[in-house]
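User: Predict the structure for this protein chain, please.
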Amino acid sequence: MECCRHDTTDWPAALSHAPAPVAALPPSAVATPPPPSTPVVRRGNLVDRLIGSVDLVVVTAPVGYGKTTLVEQWARADGRPFAWLSLDPGDNDPTVLSRSLALAVLRLGTARAAGAGPMGRGGARVTALSPQRVSRVMAEHASPFVLAIEDVDTLSSRSALDVLEAVLEHLPAGSTAVLTGRTAPALRLGRLRVRTGVVELGMTDLAIGVDDVEHLCRAWGVELGATDLADLVEGTEGWPAGVARRLAAGAGPPQHQAVMGGEWLDGLGADAIAFLRRVSCLDRFSGPLCDAVLGQLGSAVVLDDLARRNLLVIPVQRGRHWYRLHRLFAAAMQDELARVEPGLAPVLQARASAWFEAQRDLDGAITYALRSGDRARAEALAAANVATTAARGDFSSAARWLGLFSTDELSTSGQLAVAAAALHATMGESAAAAHWLACAERVVGGERPSRDQGATPPVRLALVRAGLARLSAREMLEEATYAWRRLPYGAHHAASSLCVGAAALMLGDVERATAAFADGRAEAADLVPLVEAQCLAYLALVHIDAEAWREAAPLAREARNLLAEHHLQALAPSALVSAVSYLVEAHDGNSAGAAPDRLQARHNQARYVGLAPGANLEARVALAGADLLVGNRAGARTLINEAEQILPVVHDAVRLKQRVSDLRAALAQPAEGGSLGAASLTIAELRVLQCLPTHHRAAPARVPQHGEVPGHRHLPQAGHGFSRRRRRRCPRRRAAR
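Assistant: Here is the predicted structure, written as structure tokens:
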């Protein structure tokens, strides 16, 4: 292997530096620098891929990724001779570049310069050559060879790039050119890809894994466990120089600047260094975010330039211009930020939080609020969005936001505990919901300040208590009204309207209930589909109470379709919607459409035990009425029994008391047959059944299939009260339709 002009090395030369760790290594690690003859990473897999298989290889990566090491190992494994050339800015002169390329090949000793005499050792007789004459030098070479050109990113002039392109296009058959640098050269590689085989290797290809690090540890006598090896690879992102320097540093304290070395900032101006230092406190960033955080314009151009120059500014989303810093580089820049501009990081992170909130990215808004030290803002952001996000079925986001806080923080913050209660209730985790509701009541207390306005902790707690707590109808109405009067227009105010309407309906105030449901429906539209569907279901119940089935049916079906559209049928609070839909379908004789709704409602109820007594009671009354309509007397009896157990909690729910009494009277009337099976199981039995390992195998024999109604008997249709008078009138009313 011949080298022209000067020898170069890449990351192996950095192994003799004294780096520092990302995190402390275990005491078993050897804290001594590596011996002079430093082991290097084995690149066998990449070398095997490159030998004799392609015409052009382009290797681009930042400093320390082993570009030179890869080519050196390739040269030792390949049978062809290597001509090695390292470029510098002077090679932007096409005359100088032509001479350098010719020298690199002629040093192989088997070619003659076109129009020149035999080459001596110094090559003094090589003068200016045109690209065509340089190409002829390459073409006249007697045997295939590999032309390795380092630091090719230093070429910027079009005339010099034309020379290089001409050389690449006229290499002898069987020869390969390999170009290495921080960035890809501005060559017309599209044309070259068509005419030759091209392999492009980048930072990801050159990153090393656990096996490579383990090999280095054995070579240096460093002992690391599997977990420490994995942590080292993750912390350095497989950057070979970072791994080597980290191992050389041993168990010393973190000194990220020492690990990185100073070569990363060579050639950068003060403005670019300050830019990198300040954005290091952000996990990811874009041009607009950097403009907002740094108070400047043109950040997108700066980022594109830094990423193009491969200064460990890494694109994270193709086509969307988002970037991040390499972890080690970010840590080094953060240390520098704390040293040079102390106290600036929290200010920048607070600006980032505001920017993410404006973009409706709650993950970023909450995360950076916490990092900036503004816990109150982070709590307010989480509390304001967890419940509504969960109500849209996005449990993962809601849980992730709460997961940014410790258990102690959740337990001692009234608004966070309220949010946790709402989340777990929507997920159907009744025990956890009850726990967090109790925490919120303990922290916030029972006072309801009359001057509170907005979503303060007492107002939030009042709303959640109205929806979930074991309150009488009158108590529920008081809590819901307190929240309704203080919450601003939006999703939470819509939920308060729903609770006001539900309490008023239980108390028999139909006019107030109807107005509240209508307001909640309008306000929740396009914001909280679950609340909108619940308001629709309650409005359908109001019409059913008035025996206005024609008006009730479209509302119930719209509610069911709304849940289906947003995939919310399985949410525990959806039980009432499914129950009302079942009642409407049963009244219209649509047994095929009724059975799935009943099954869905019962499964949702099984996950909503001990919460929302009013809504649970309404759902059971609707289900029991529908069961009587389809002849499922066993199922109706179970539901009536459960309803009677809930009644003492809402003892002042006069309307529901009358409905349960009417259902019990209707059940007492003699009827043929009956039904057994899943429809007659209690909620407790349903919950146990779901936990049994044989449940899924037994389900087909016990659970009604689509289109089937267990124990169906033809009975006259009845109204929601199921009096004997209504049963007699119903057939005539249906015939009149």
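Confidence is low (pLDDT under 50) at residues 1-37, 110-128, 251-259, 673-737.
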